[in-house]
Amino acid sequence: MPQLDFSTYTPQIFWLVVTFIALFLIMWKIAVPRIANSLEARQKRIEDFLDRAADCKKEAEETLAAYEAAMTEARTQAQAMIAEAAKTISEAAEAREAELTEELNRKFADSEASIKEAIDGAMDNVRGIALDVAAAALGKLTGEAPNDKNLAKAVDQAMKVDE
To answer: Higher model confidence: residue 91 or residue 154?
Structure first.
């Protein structure tokens, strides 16, 4: 093995030092700055992304706050509209109920008047029929024509007792 030959140690050490210095200079002047620049650019991009993310988060929070405020306002307006509609409907229902009550009372009064007229008419007919029946019965029983005045008085008195 040539590495173990003592006569070649000095040139091997010389070329080792020259190669090490060359590689060290290449790394120091070319490779390491490029790697450092890449790392710095990467770190800068990461920081930019984080800044943009923070800005987006802040914007999203502002949008959420505006949305919640708008929803609260919309709920308040909706509740006010519902309350107003309920009040309007209640007032309309009360007015309609009062109108219907008045109409029913008027119809009831008209019906009572009609019934009273019908009863009065029927009673007059009953009185007339009672006078005729009483006159006919009295005429058949006694054989004489009854006095119309006395007969009317007796029928009127009998009808008052029934009432």
So the answer is: 91
Q: Name 8's Cβ contacts closer than 8 Å, sequence gap at least 6.
A: 2
Structure tokens, 159: 């009808």
Spatial neighbors of 3 by CB under 8 A, at least 6 apart, are 12
Quickly count: other Cβ atoms within 10 Å of residue 127's Cβ.
Answer: 14
Count of beta carbons in the 10 Å neighbourhood of residue 143: 7
Distant-in-sequence, close-in-space partners of 104: CB < 8 Å, separation ≥ 6: none
Q: What's the alpha-carbon Rg for the chain, to the nearest Å? A: 61
Pairwise pLDDT comparison (127 vs 1), residue with the higher score:
127
Residue 97 sits at the vertex; the CA angle it makes with 91 and 101, to the nearest 5 degrees, is 145
